[in-house]
Design a protein that fits this description.
Pfam families: MerR_1, TipAS. This protein is mostly helical and 247 residues long. The protein contains 13 helices and two strands; from the N terminus they run ααββααααααααααα. The protein has a two-stranded antiparallel ribbon.
Length: 247
């Protein structure tokens, strides 16, 4: 299958498939006489595995480590996917029951205990914060948390979130342009300024954050809600923005 056919089949953008090829995660088994990528049945099976891992929150770097390992067993991996997805489904089913019961409670049909109101929620850990501390240290994360808390106390959090979503939409509108274009760089410059309202990002950290947008499936999924391929575009635009200023 050609890259456009694979994109149409899976719903993944051509740009994302090209990226997987570039990082050695999903390299097509063949090429046409014209030099176009040609995906085999084996490639499609591997792509399915990649998407299962992404759905479960694995980074692209970790996925590559797993699927290229000599000990990788496709059937064993599928069984693990099933186990984790069943766990995820159980939590979602409990949340649905909590929502349904809360609706009935709001209508006066049943009475809920305080414990019942919070069944299904899991706030045992914050993986984003934990990973941020590992990457940039406690001081940077603590400063960011303090800025966010001040926004809440000043009643400016909603306005900040609205500004962020509007900027996401602006970036999505130019995501098919060259990341180094004037319009792209103007928008990504606004993103750099906005992020520094809630943290302290050097140009190196800004570039690194852009890479995380692509490597971490959770970030990619959230960002691409504004437009397929936006995370990849932002990664490239952020890298150009940083490199052009670092010299």
């Amino acid at each position: 299958m050609k890259v456009k056919e694979v994109a149409d089949l899976t719903g993944i953008s051509v740009r994302t498939l090209h990226h997987y090829d570039e990082i050695g995660l999903l390299v097509p088994d063949g090429t046409t006489e014209a030099g176009y990528r040609d995906y085999s049945e084996r490639n499609l099976e591997l792509l399915q595995q990649i998407l299962f891992f992404r759905e479960l929150g694995f980074t692209l770097k970790k996925i590559k480590e797993i699927v290229t390992s000599k000990s990788f067993d496709r059937l064993e991996a599928l069984e693990r996917h099933r186990e984790r997805l069943n766990e995820k489904r159980s939590q979602l089913e409990q949340l649905l029951r909590t929502v349904e019961q809360t609706i009935r409670h709001a209508k006066g049909e049943v009475t809920m205990t305080n414990e019942e109101k919070f069944k299904g929620f899991d706030f045992g850990s914050n993986p984003y914060e934990q990973e941020a501390r590992e990457r940039w240290g406690d001081k940077a994360v603590d400063e960011s948390n303090a800025k966010m808390e001040k926004l809440k106390q000043d009643g400016k959090m909603q306005a900040f979130q609205d500004e962020m979503n509007e900027l996401y939409r602006k970036l999505a509108a130019v995501r098919h342009d060259d990341p180094s274009s004037e319009a792209s760089q103007e928008a990504i410059g606004q993103w750099f300024t906005l992020l520094n309202q809630m943290g302290s990002y050097s140009l190196e950290a800004f570039k690194g954050l852009g890479q995380i947008y692509v490597d971490d499936a959770r970030f990619t999924r959230n960002i691409d809600q504004f437009g397929e391929g936006l995370a990849l575009f932002m990664r490239d635009a952020m890298a150009y923005y940083s490199d052009s200023r670092l010299g």
